[in-house]
Amino acid sequence: MKKVLVVGEINVDLILQGYREFPVPGKEVLVDDFSMVLGSASAICAMGLARLGTPVAFLGKVGDDLLGRFCLDAMRARGIDVSRVTVDPALKTGVTAAITSPKDRALVSFLGSIGALTAADVPAEAFAGFDHLHVSSYFLQGGLRPGIHPLFRAAHGRGLTTSLDPGFDPSETWGRDLHDTLGETDLFFPNEVELRGLSATADIEAALRQLRRDRLRVVAKLGRDGAMTLEGEQLLHPPAFPVRPIDTTGAGDSFDAGFLHAWLRGQPVGACLRLAGACGALSTLGLGGTAAQPTLEEAEAFLRDSA
Ligand code: ADP
Questions:
Q1: Is residue 214 over pLDDT 90?
Q2: Does ligand 1 lie within 6 Å of residue 162's CB atom?
């Protein structure tokens, strides 16, 4: 079975759920519920892959603190090999507070150890024994960002395939460096906003055509509108599966995991999109990014029921 190395960021999501009035400076508001869960796109994707049965190892950095231990425990409990995660007493593990209601949400993030990971933490030997390298949150990982292109090139040189989820760019400048990295990327998973930012066009199909390269497949994630990718000249646009979401945090990361799991098993693109869509939809049925991620059997049963 093909093995995946995820290199990326780890943080905690604090979910403050059910505000009636949104907090404003100088006031306190109460919420109905609170959960602390593993957050961060790279870690959520790794959790989704592990749940589906793909062997996964994670390489990243956390602080030597409660939150870091919480994250590593959650990953270990899923069977992820975290032996390549550095626990650095000089760092603090990052945290995102999500203030949510059924209507909307606001996020406040402290990046903590996320920016501290660099390509120097990923020696070429780290690829030994793996078939695929995945990275999420290109723009949030300030330390790793300039090293992602060379890392992907090195991974290709060692016979691994590569995948990238850009995540949002808080500066909204969508740097050219990412376009260069796509030259060494096999699978690219932007959502609609990210694709628009990167291609400077609002037309998804035009954006997919614009980003086209030899070995690259771009899969656009369109939330409730499903996903889109080019298969040769043909545009594939499977709709999303109808569900009643509780929390869409990490849906895109679970989608990535589903696509990767099928793709690494050599399945045709249609089957990859179906498993990805099932994993994305099912993940919205629980609070946080990882609680409702399906096993392969659960995803297949959902696909049978949806047929
Ligand atoms: P991201 O989380 O990266 O912004 P999306 O919101 O596009 O990505 O979600 C990724 C995938 O998860 C979608 O392509 C879709 O398959 C699934 N998904 C997301 N939201 C819903 C929803 N409300 N109903 C059904 N499926 C959804």
A1: no
A2: no
- Is a pLDDT exceeding 90 seen at residue 131? yes
- pTM for the whole thing? 0.97
Kindly give, in sequence order, each residue whose CB lies less than 8 Å from that of residue 23, ignoring residues fewer than 6 positions away. 29, 99
The Cα–Cα gap between 9 and 62 comes to 9
Q: Is the CB of 280 under 6 A from ligand 1?
A: yes
38 CA → ligand 1 middle, Å: 19
String of DSSP letters for 41-84 = HHHHHHHHHHHHT--EEEE-EEESSHHHHHHHHHHHHTT-B-TT
Query: What pLDDT does 104 receive?
Result: 79
Task: Say if ligand 1 is within 6 A of residue 48 CB.
Answer: no
State the average pLDDT for the chain: 96
Q: What six digits make up the tokens of 117?
A: 């990971």
- DSSP 3-state of 298: helix
Q: Please say whether the beta carbons of 306 and 56 come within 8 A.
A: no
Q: Cβ(289)–Cβ(283) under 8 Å?
A: yes
Say what the pLDDT of residue 256 is.
98
Phi, psi of 243 (to 5 degrees): -140, 165
